[in-house]
């Protein structure tokens, strides 16, 4: 297994030079996020992730979790690492100051989260889920619930879960059956079974705050009859101290392909008569609240795809530089490291440039989150929110596919050793496999992209995105640089192919929804490839600017331009085929 | 876990109507392979695979193998199943009558092998490796060695292994260090360590015949100094009875990502002074003999990719038809099976049509093997051999990538359940992961395709292949059928794009080998996609003919034409992007 080294140079390049930390730090409330502080936070986070969390990655895979009498045992070292995580304040970076957070921009918090995820995906799910639960409470809970739960969730003393799935209700939340009956004291008695609950039970935090979707008596059928409840593992007294154990327990753990270190629980609510729960927001609005949170959660899973792709890349690169095998086909030199072989270099660059493309897109979206949250101009906030809405399914859907492809290539680069578990490459492949599934499969992201993000507003969000793409292409065309000029036609073609396919798809889906859904995933892939090409265009612009200013690491900036060219030749080239599938697939759908 | 059901209708369609069993059965020596006998063999093989071998697939995964004091324990039921396999004569189908085989065409033997592989990939490796070892002896061994070993290997009483890899010599066989010293009695003392030896030790067969690559004293360095030896686990007396235990043992087993039921051994030869071995053929010609066998072995691994893809498809299809979830986006009907959702149907069809494309290509190549082996006309034999040589790296490289993609999609269709080991979908993903690696990685197949199969003869083999493709396109154009006419332009474009990219690549690689190797894998993928499209064109031709004759299952034949159309829209469309990568990637190589 290779050591994880946080790619801070690339991260800072994206944050500072591509997205523009200065602009974000200029927004009200983010004044403290200076480049110096940002650099310090990234360096400290890198150290913590590399030294404390990364070494537990394999331990977690090998030991996994176990449950006995409802008590879940996590792998060795997990407890100490989680304590260090909380004590270091790593759970508070992006959280609001009002509840004890550091109120840093999401742009910065995202990079920190990526490091934790790259170090140890199974471990990272605990704070990520707590963040998601906090976000739901921030959005929808009463002041009283917020005050009672948020400070300790943000500090990490208590963790959070999301309880959506039931055996008959996976992707289809409308089928939820868990019930909540009102009690005399204003609370509710929650009864039902939930499955696939990540960190549903453990002893790393003092309390676990379950957010549970359930139906009130006489609630309307379907998605409009689902409410959201807080169900704490231990009831919380008015003074904030822990009260009695609630009627909720872990029945069993799943035996999974990967992320063994994170317990995936079957949870029973109300076996002893009813778990005490508290309604969040208004009745029957649970799904709406979950959807707000889901944007964050889907962004977070997209980041997991990028994080595992980075980890797999580093592992493969280390192996390829170390492993001596074969003869250089060009020079004839014997016993070269396999990274000298063209196809191994190609695979490494494919991993590297797609991972960075997905990362640039995600960080750029994080910057738009910050604008949507904090910009003083309402129109700017609204536009940023629209772009975020449009890009979330692409960040989630495409980055997780990139994560899977990269871990697959990572094993391939190792040859036979990649198939041996001790090597560590196979764990990344196994861990990554859930990412295109949870928080909505790739098919569901594609459905969301087409039906909600493109169709509902008649393409308004899409035009906003395309305007940004075209602006950057024009800027690139204006640059006098041979290396950049060589790839701009491919970039422009890629974006234009994406644009045409999008309008054709929207037009066709208006009259034939089934045909549209039939090619929604190829379209999402096309969108990811095109957004990635756009981001590499932005990277080349930023690198060219830095080179012109004579600032920073020139070799790094030149490599950015070369890698942009690689991406255009090896990835952006796929746009036409994907667009052809979107258009020709529409026809074929009617005949099968 | 779903039941495996051998796809005999599709297999017979390919064997009889697409490849043309009649022509193969008309070759000298294959007269017994009548359609009736072929159908009977396929039905019996299906029954055996489904009832005896398939039920052990999960047992093998869960139990795996263990070793104690050099004795390897295989999973429960393995021994009984292997005995039944041998007693049923399943090991003898394609083997020469001279040594007890049934001398059936490879076309037919391939379908039987696919069934065994689909049922239980880990189990199937034992007979497949024995076949490979037998093929090497048939090619190169003396009459005496053949007579001594082949009959019992072909009957399955003894199994075979291939011992190539050493810790420092994986893909690079030139680096082999195992030594063989001549002894006074004409035998050799073999000393060295081999790794990744599949079924290197077990107690399913009475004896294990190891084929070992080693160096004679004073052998030239590199690949021209490697010789091939037979090293039996038990020495064989002149009367054929077993003698003393040879100095070879299993030191340890690998802990692998998949195919847990097959023991992957570290083998020590000569720990007690030297294992007794016998030279096969001439000194220093070992690699050449291995290469002859490797064609067969690579074809066999390509078949494994198809077999696991079929198994994953069946599992996903069964789940998608059973699992009720969500609303039909078109009709609005509630609680439909997920196979009604357009994206799930798309994924199922992608699995199905790519798997069949790869199968048609492999079976067609098997038919060419038979022609190369048995045709009375030397020119016809030679041409068939050339086409086989050209297509083997595509069958191996592309079918195994299809196998990996399909098992990935198979998990995806299961949603969260796919990530749970008990479901069985994850096992296929894990099992498939070795297929793009062993018997030469995809990169090595691509290298072989470009350097040996395209460059060496100045494109002669390629022209032979293209002529066949163009003939079939012309035949399709002449057909008056709306459904076929709709996809022929895409097929023609796909083949033409492949052809142009091939000539450009050959031309460029002549002056710049490194640039050629840089895009060899995208070119191999392009070749696979184009050959698949060609085969679907052949399928449409055959189905149209059957429909015209009013023969057979009309619904099946119409579905073949629809599926051909799906493949063109969803897979053949990718050819242009791949070709663009081959051409533009050539340029980008020089700058990185």
TrEMBL record, chains A, B:
Its cofactor is FAD. Residues 40-157 form the Acyl-CoA dehydrogenase/oxidase N-terminal domain. The keyword Transmembrane applies. Residues 162-270 form the Acyl-CoA oxidase/dehydrogenase middle domain. Keywords: FAD, Flavoprotein, Membrane, Oxidoreductase, Transmembrane, Transmembrane helix. Residues 478-591 form the Acetyl-CoA dehydrogenase-like C-terminal domain. Residues 284-452 form the Acyl-CoA dehydrogenase/oxidase C-terminal domain. It comes from the Bacteria. The chain crosses the membrane at residues 515-536. Belongs to the acyl-CoA dehydrogenase family. PANTHER family: ACYL-COA DEHYDROGENASE (PTHR42803), BROAD-SPECIFICITY LINEAR ACYL-COA DEHYDROGENASE FADE5 (PTHR42803:SF1). This is Acyl-CoA dehydrogenase. It comes from Aromatoleum diolicum.
